[in-house]
Amino acid sequence: MPSTNYLLNNMNLKSASLILLLLFAISFCKAQKRNPVPVIFDTDIAGDYDDVGAMALLHTFADKGEAKILATISCNAFETTAPTISVINTYFGRPEIPIGILKKSKPNKDCPQQWAQAIIAGYPHNIKSNSQAVEAVSLYRKVLATQTDGSVTIISVGFFTNLADLLRSGADKYSSLTGEQLVKQKVKKLVSMATGIGTDGKTFSEYNVNVDAASAQEVFKNWPTPITLSGFEIGEKILTGIRLVNNYPIQNSPIKDAFQVALEKDKNTVGRNSWDETAVLTAIRGAKPYFTYRKLDMEIKDDGTNVIIPGERFLYLQLAMEPAAIAKDIEQLMMHQPIKKPKR
Ligand SMILES: [Ca+2]
């Protein structure tokens, strides 16, 4: 039979080991917890509703402490875009996020399925018209000027109009730097849903690029930070929205309503392609485990066609999992409910 002393010593040893293990676990968890990614989100939200899914993902990541949304900016002059962004920011309890818009007449791409008009009519929002939103480039400059050097991720899921205008901008009251210098100093990376690789393995004409090809040409040539591209063929295969609209416990959600209206209008029973959601997912969580990268370079022709050329300027996503498995995870994030739901 062991002596009392032996038992006490043995217990102390066990307790000490347990405490050490606990301390190790705590420090490991702390090391694992990353700081939220500061993001400026640029969208053409109207012509398609994957932008709605992308905004839902972004706010979900903000609720989880993985993203900090610095500004939400429209690159589409169509009348519903700033109010739509306001509806979604308000729904997720962040009505204070600055909203910008290009103060130009083009690009102007409407909302054929009328989902934007439906959620603007049905949900509270501060920005009632595009004229109430801030001019896009001045908002970019104002926000970037106050951020830590090399910290900001820009997610672009629309046209390159604002980004080209930002590069071309000159000193103003927010910064003495040119737009290109300001981007170089403050931006960590640009993640964009744009371009594609067609059946010839080389060329494609993708909407976000060809709507304003001149701006895309400028950004692809002069943008001074790393660029990640989610090409057309990536999001095309990832279908989401059906589980969302069939999720009965989700009520009074502009995200669900937008998908419901649009899917019905399109007579779509399989789900919408998740182009823009892939850009947000990659920008915040990185490529793994869903995607891998391939390094390549591209040139944008005057008509907006992209052509692969020798070089390694861009990180280009490639699928690393079955699209259905990626869709399941994306849709789960799209079904996240706001933690600060506003009163209706
Ligand atoms: Ca888009």
Written overview of the protein:
By secondary structure, the protein is of the alpha/beta class. Helices cover 42% and strands 20% of the residues. It is built from 14 helices and twelve strands. The chain is globular. The N and C termini lie far apart (70 Å). The model has no long low-confidence stretch (mean pLDDT 93). The chain binds calcium ion. Calcium ion (CA) is lined by residues 43-44, 48, 51, 157-158, 276.
N- to C-terminal distance: 70 Å
Mean pLDDT: 93
Overall structural class, as computed from helix and strand content, comes to: alpha/beta
Total separate domains: 1
CATH topology: Inosine-uridine Nucleoside N-ribohydrolase, Chain A
User: Class, according to the CATH hierarchy?
Assistant: Alpha Beta
Q: Kindly report the name of the CATH homologous superfamily.
A: Ribonucleoside hydrolase-like
**Bound molecule types:** calcium ion
* CATH architecture field: Alpha-Beta Complex
Task: Indicate the low-confidence ranges by residue numbers.
Answer: none
Number of DSSP E strands: 12
Beta strand %: 15-25%
Individual helix count: 14
Shape: globular
